[in-house]
Amino acid sequence: MCEGENSGDNGKAASKQAARSAKQPSSKPWLPHAIRLQRLTSGAVRASGLDTQPEEDPEVAETVIYDLTAVICHVNDERKNVVALINVAPSYFERAGQKPRSSWYIFNDFRYVFVYSV
Question: Using one digit for the tens of pLDDT, what is the confidence trace for 90-103?
């Protein structure tokens, strides 16, 4: 859960922070955009990032890669609020007649703000 404070500004501070982050993206994100899960023959599950190459392991029965598509954050102020960061897929932009791209937006009540494109 993400916790933040917007001091009654209806998400303007979060939107400004997202815009600053978009201009200066972190070299190492705090949350991976994708993870690898491996189901082992024993029934256990092994998770890893995509920044490491998996070794050949006869114990691996299945490997699946999951892409992060959304993050829900609880804003802890007097009014309590929930915001969503959503990765809008390239297919949406194609249907809208635009150049396909993967773009993140922050949604807060009736507003949405572009964060950055991947």
Answer: 898 999 999 988 89
